[in-house]
């Protein structure tokens, strides 16, 4: 009886807080408890825990279970499609989205955008563009204060870049150029737009402009995949491919004017392919905030693979780890 007196929405929110804190086991326990309470969000939460543990097969299984038990819920269909797409099961992902679109309560715009993204991942960019064009008026009507607006612009930018439509990409960017200079919100989507333009400019051999937009993209999202890819592509021109895969830690000072508080110590960690640890550090520097970059030095490194045929450059950028400079144990 006690469980029935619990507010499921409050419990659901607590489960997501636990997940964000990295308490996967406790978050899963909340998800199981919500399932006993017959709360549809239980399956979404459980799937998110599995995804955080890189167990996508289990995430798909629990989402399918949730769809069966709830007689279909569009958020579960959306998450199922997203997970299948991340696994590379593109046709199954599109089918999941179409099932979601057929439900009585749904967001058609969201599903069409996700279908377009899957087509883009399949290199079927004309089909992707067709899906995006069907929802353009609705997205624009929602306005640039909504996340879906920036997600849409990011998806469209990637398609134009992949199609080599640099002029259309420039037209897309022009009315939102000032917004792309704003770091306060929608950073990931804005980074994808800037990175897509940087890629297109690079393909036109407009290197100076490409570097400016790439720098902006990295400022917005240090771990954006297009940022890392384009950086590696530029290194291919001057460095032979292959090397060792390193995990490196750089240690530096985070200046007070970036925190409106006081100076902090900062650790920046990367996975990098390079010939040696110093070269790995040099490749990583552009992914460290420009205002703090000169203070960073190579602290530690580990060789993850002695030999890899992959191009040189950065492959993974981890979040900064901050520490109190006055703490002797940390310092």
Structure characteristics:
single chain, 331 residues, alpha+beta, Serine Threonine Protein Phosphatase 5, Tetratricopeptide repeat, 2 domains, five-stranded antiparallel sheet, 14 helices, 56% helix, 13% strand, globular
Secondary-structure map:
Elements: H1 8-20, H2 24-36, H3 41-52, H4 56-69, H5 74-86, H6 90-101, H7 108-121, H8 125-142, H9 147-162, H10 166-173, H11 187-203, H12 207-220, H13 225-236, E1 243-254, E2 264-274, H14 277-284, E3 297-308, E4 313-317, E5 321-323
Antiparallel strand pairs: 1-2, 1-3, 2-4, 2-5
Helix pairs in contact: 1-2, 1-3, 2-3, 3-4, 3-5, 4-5, 5-6, 5-7, 6-7, 7-8, 7-9, 8-9, 9-10, 9-11, 10-11, 11-12
Describe the 3D structure:
This protein is α+β, with helices and mostly antiparallel strands. The chain folds into two domains: 239 residues, Serine Threonine Protein Phosphatase 5, Tetratricopeptide repeat (Alpha Horseshoe), CATH 1.25.40; 91 residues, no CATH class. It is built from 14 helices and five strands. Strands 1, 2, 3, 4 and 5 form a five-stranded antiparallel beta sheet that branches. The longest helix has 18 residues. It is globular, with a radius of gyration of 22 Å. The mean pLDDT is 92.
| Helical/strand content category | alpha+beta
Number of helices: 14
Percentage beta strand: 5-15%
The domain tally reads: 2
Average pLDDT figure: 92
Considering DSSP H and I runs of 4 or more, what fraction of the residues is helical? 55-70%
Order of helices and strands: HHHHHHHHHHHHHEEHEEE
State Rg.
Answer: 22 Å
Cα end-to-end separation: 52 Å
Poorly predicted spans = none
């Amino acid at each position: 009886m006690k469980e029935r007196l619990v507010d499921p929405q409050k419990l659901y929110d607590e489960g997501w807080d636990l997940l964000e804190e990295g308490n996967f086991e406790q978050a899963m326990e909340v998800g199981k408890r919500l399932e006993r309470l017959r709360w549809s969000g239980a399956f979404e939460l459980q799937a998110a825990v599995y995804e955080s543990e890189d167990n996508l097969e289990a995430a798909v299984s629990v989402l399918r279970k949730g769809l069966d038990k709830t007689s279909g819920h569009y958020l579960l269909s959306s998450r199922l499609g997203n997970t299948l797409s991340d696994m590379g099961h593109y046709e199954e992902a599109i089918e999941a989205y179409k099932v979601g679109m057929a439900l009585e309560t749904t967001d058609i715009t969201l599903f069409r955008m996700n279908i377009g993204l899957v087509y883009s991942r399949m290199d079927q960019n004309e089909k992707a563009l067709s899906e995006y064009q069907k929802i353009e008026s609705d997205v624009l009507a929602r306005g640039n204060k909504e996340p879906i607006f920036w997600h849409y612009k990011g998806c469209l930018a990637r398609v134009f870049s992949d199609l080599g439509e640099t002029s259309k990409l420039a037209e897309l960017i022009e009315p939102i150029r000032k917004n792309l200079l704003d770091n306060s919100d929608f950073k990931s989507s804005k980074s994808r737009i800037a990175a897509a333009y940087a890629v297109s400019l690079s393909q036109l051999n407009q290197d100076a402009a490409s570097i400016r937009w790439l720098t902006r993209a990295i400022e917005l999202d240090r771990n954006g995949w297009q940022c890392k890819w384009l950086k590696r592509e530029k290194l291919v021109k001057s460095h032979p491919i292959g090397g060792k895969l390193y995990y490196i830690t750089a240690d530096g000072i985070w200046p007070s004017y970036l925190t409106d508080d006081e100076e902090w110590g900062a650790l920046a960690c990367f996975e990098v392919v390079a010939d040696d640890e110093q070269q790995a550090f040099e490749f990583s520097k552009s992914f460290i905030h420009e205002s703090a970059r000169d203070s960073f030095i190579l602290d530690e490194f580990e060789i993850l693979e002695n030999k890899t045929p992959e191009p040189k450059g950065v492959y993974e950028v981890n979040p900064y780890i901050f520490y109190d400079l006055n703490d002797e144990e940390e310092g």
